Amino acid sequence: MIAVDLGSRTTKAVLLERRGEIYALTRYAMLDAPIFEKKISPELLSDHLHAVTEALGNTTKYLTMSVGLEDAIVRQIEMPQIPLDEMRLVLKVNHKNYLQQDLPNHVFDCFIIPPRPLLPNEKGFDSARSSGSAPKFKVLAAAAKQQLITDYTRAANQAGLTVDCMIPGILAPINTLERVLPEVFANETVALVDVGFKNTSVCVLDRSELALTRVVNIGGDKLTAGLAETMNISYAEAEGIKVGMAPEVESALQMQVIPLGREIRASLDFFEHENDRPVTQVYVSGGAARSEMIMQMLHSELMLECKTWNPTGFLQLALPGQQAVEIEHVGPQLTVAIGAALAAL
Ligand SMILES: Nc1ncnc2c1ncn2[C@@H]1O[C@H](COP(=O)(O)OP(=O)(O)OP(=O)(O)O)[C@@H](O)[C@H]1O
Ligand SMILES: [Mg+2]
């Protein structure tokens, strides 16, 4: 199966193969996004997906796609205990109540979060015990424009592919963490931060529940542009310096990372204030997570341990030559694509 993460700068794709009980990563691809300023047309997307499958060796036609941060709405809500297809209908009719937004011409989907037993000292423990009534389901609700789903599906079909599944990109790193670090996923309160090109996504995961999502409009693009401006050099030069981690640019780069760190910190503060629980660790993915220097800067700005993590940890690696060598560095950038693949497995 192929999973594609259409980033605003770089398209990431992975090819997974089922081998009995486990999955093998047999190939990955990173391609420049066709255009990163405007919306992409179905025709251009189709050509692009064609190039992606070619880069992956044309071995399967099943495709999972992640939907970008700006194109999908995700909330954790409570819903009555009804079957999933009824839930989708209720959302379609009643989304204004549940999502506090009017979303005409959208499609809706739900995922029921498996209930976890409440601890005796936890909020709701007594009422859940004494009321005897069926508690509500905690549900992840997602919405996207019908037109976008139609366009993506059509583009995939034109490229000879069948869309198996679409998942909001913001949720993908959570899927990956669940597989790579199941203990952390189930028991801890952590933040998942994906630093992309245009945006950075922040999710607070509180013992397997999605407690907060936020998109910050700062990513690798702003870091490079800011560096170019302060150092009075071209964007391309600044990009090279950023990726090369030249020590003499540390202070100039730090200046660019500070606003990003502050925004992330503000999200964590909000969660901690509302819930009276600390976030203990930050798991960082996306292109910028490939830079040790940026990771250290985030660490000191957030005053919290920031970890890069290996999204391929649960996969058997069966990559060809050069990819087998490079995966260690590229890994953080593939987190969303791998998480999207997991949605379809
Ligand atoms: N080694 C590195 N050090 C620092 N930054 C890097 C490194 N490698 C890639 N990047 C940055 O990562 C960014 C691209 O990351 P990524 O592929 O996660 O973004 P995207 O998914 O295309 O964007 P978005 O998620 O905003 O749509 C670029 O800005 C690039 O400069
Ligand atoms: Mg991205």
Fold and architecture overview:
A hairpin with a 4-residue loop joins strand 9 (189-195) and strand 10 (200-206). Strands 8-4-1-2-3-14 form a six-stranded mixed β-sheet, sandwiched between helices. The chain has a five-stranded mixed β-sheet with strand order 11-10-9-12-13. The termini are close together. The chain has a domain at 182-308: ATPase, nucleotide binding domain (Nucleotidyltransferase, domain 5, 2-Layer Sandwich), CATH 3.30.420.40. The chain contains twelve helices and 14 strands. By secondary structure, the chain is an alpha/beta fold. It has helices spanning 42-55, 84-99, 125-131, 146-158, 172-180, 182-187, 220-231, 235-244, 250-275, 292-302, 321-330, 335-344; strands spanning 2-6, 10-19, 22-32, 62-67, 72-79, 106-112, 137-145, 162-168, 189-195, 200-206, 209-216, 281-285, 305-308, 316-317. The model has no long low-confidence stretch (mean pLDDT 93). Helix 5 (172-180) crosses helix 12 and helix 7 crosses helix 8 (235-244). Bound molecules: adenosine-5'-triphosphate and magnesium ion. Adenosine-5'-triphosphate (ATP) binds at residues 7-10, 196-199, 219-221, 224, 239, 242-243, 286-288, 290-291, 294, 333.
Which CATH architecture of the domain at 182-308 is right? 2-Layer Sandwich
So how many helices?
Answer: 12
Fourth-level CATH superfamily of the domain at 182-308: ATPase, nucleotide binding domain
Fraction in beta strands: 25-35%
pLDDT under 50 segments (min length 5)? none
Q: Kindly, what is the distance between the CA atoms of the first and last residues, rounded to a whole number of angstroms?
A: 9 Å
User: Given the C-alpha coordinates, what overall shape results?
Assistant: globular
Helices and strands: which structural class? alpha/beta
What is the CATH class of the domain at 182-308?
Alpha Beta
Tell me the strand order in the biggest sheet. Answer: 8-4-1-2-3-14
Helix content: 40-55%
Q: What Rg is obtained from the alpha carbons, in whole angstroms?
A: 21 Å
Count the beta strands.
14
What does the average pLDDT come to? Answer: 93
Order of helices and strands: EEEHEEHEHEHEHHEEEHHHEHEEHH
Distinct ligand kinds: adenosine-5'-triphosphate, magnesium ion
The fold-level CATH name of the domain at 182-308 is Nucleotidyltransferase, domain 5
> How is the main sheet built?
6 strands, mixed
